[in-house]
Specification:
Length: 315
């Protein structure tokens, strides 16, 4: 398949299961019902945690709370498996919700698929701790890792807002002259807090997870008084990707952030980064969380594991 630039390869993955047709529709109806009810940030946090708690965890994974440069983290690893190589994971949640505990259904499947230990960052949430605290904490954890392990044995990953924080931390790491990791994996990245991309509006009726107005509120809570076009807030606007490691980006065509993921892939590739862009047709925002219901979720994890194995075998 022809690619826009020599360093960008694009792969289209079609839906193959009946679950992948039913689940997104069910999510759309659930979103319509939930978003028409009175709410608050505290309620949203509790609802999200409750929903994640209903997703079965992967067996055979050890969870160990720790700290890296003072930042709370959690090691998640196959029984008896020690680092390196390892994955540094930054969870999503719109900067305002989520934790390493709520995201165990997702990170556990990453550990299972890759058979690698994973260090999940329990960064502080906005609005209590707005920008730049969260990306600074991710950078602190990354700095701790590269002080203990070779960068070529580290894979950095993040989903949604976590992908934003992972990018912001690595952009700052590059600015400070720190080495880059072996690879970067971004799931449904939220990288434009200005909501300027067409899919924010065009796909709002398709995405059963995200709501444009609530996304804008979360962006303001996180950014506080900072300019939303700041590339450390909206990494889509960065011109500093030269030297970044090979990157895998997975996006779903039902995701209101679809255009952001695609634009980011093109932006990074134009600056010389080797990017693999996977376009998953009919998939909503971070469909990986529904792997217990949709085979396409399990398949997405396998693709991530394959990408990581290829990168680690390169060294």
């Amino acid at each position: 398949m022809n690619s826009p630039t020599p360093t960008l390869s694009m792969r289209h993955i079609r839906r193959q299961s009946w679950q992948s047709v039913v689940a997104p529709v069910a999510l759309q109806f659930y979103k319509l019902w939930r978003h028409n009810r009175p709410t608050s940030l505290e309620k949203e946090r509790k609802t999200f945690a409750s929903l994640c708690a209903r997703i079965p965890l992967i067996e055979g994974i050890e969870y160990l709370r720790t700290a890296a440069n003072g930042v709370p983290c959690e090691w998640q690893q196959p029984a008896g498996k020690q680092a390196p190589p390892l994955i540094l994971y930054v969870h999503g949640g719109g900067f305002v919700m989520g934790s390493v505990a709520t995201y165990r259904p997702l990170t556990g499947r990453i550990v299972q698929a890759t058979e690698l230990p994973l260090l999940a960052v329990d960064y502080s949430l906005a609005p209590e701790h707005p920008f730049p605290t969260p990306p600074d904490q991710v950078l602190q954890v990354y700095g701790w890792l590269i002080a203990h392990y070779a960068p070529k044995q580290i894979i950095v990953m993040g989903d949604s807002a976590g992908a934003n924080l992972a990018l912001a931390a690595l952009l700052q790491a590059k600015k400070e002259g720190k080495p880059m990791p072996a690879a970067l994996v971004l799931i449904s990245p939220w990288v434009d807090l200005t909501s300027s991309m067409p899919s924010i509006r065009k796909k709002a009726w398709l995405d059963g997870i995200l709501n444009p107005s609530r996304l804008a509120i979360a962006a303001k809570l996180y950014a506080a008084e900072h300019d939303l076009k700041n590339p450390f807030l909206s990494p889509l606007f960065s011109e500093e990707y030269e030297g970044f490691p090979p990157t895998l980006i997975q996006v779903g065509t039902y995701d209101i952030l679809f255009d952001e993921g695609k634009a980011l892939a093109e932006k990074m590739a134009a600056q010389g980064v080797k990017v693999e862009l996977e376009v998953w047709h009919g998939m909503p925002h971070v469909w990986h969380l529904f792997a217990h219901r949709m085979p396409e979720g399990k398949k997405a994890y396998r693709h991530i594991a394959d990408f990581i194995r290829r990168r680690l075998s390169f060294f």
